[in-house]
Amino acid sequence: MAGVAVSGVLFVIIRSFARPPPKTMNAQYQAMTNEYLRAQKTEPITGVSSEGYKGKGMIQSKPRKGPPPSDDDE
């Protein structure tokens, strides 16, 4: 039981020093990536650029709060 407690404490300590998620991990940025892939005609047979594509593409995150990302965000 002590091992589980130590593991929990280590987990919390390590997570407290973690960096925030990257700005590319939000739905708006991933939607912009989908548009870019369509413009470049990436994977025209089965991917985002294919005719009748109904999948999510590169979107895998929840929408972010705040203004949409811009190209000059660093």
Question: Could you explain how this protein is built, in words?
Answer:
The chain is mainly alpha-helical. The model has no long low-confidence stretch (mean pLDDT 84).
> Helical element count?
2
Which regions have little confidence, pLDDT < 50, spanning 5+ residues? none
- Strand percent estimate: under 5%
Overall geometry comes to elongated
Tell me about the biggest sheet?
none
Task: State the distance separating the first and last CA atoms.
Answer: 45 Å
Helix-residue proportion? 25-40%
Order of helices and strands: HH
Tally of DSSP β-strands: 0
The mean pLDDT is: 84
**Which radius of gyration do the C-alpha atoms yield?**
19 Å
Task: Offer a concise description of the structure.
The chain is an all-alpha fold and 74 residues long.
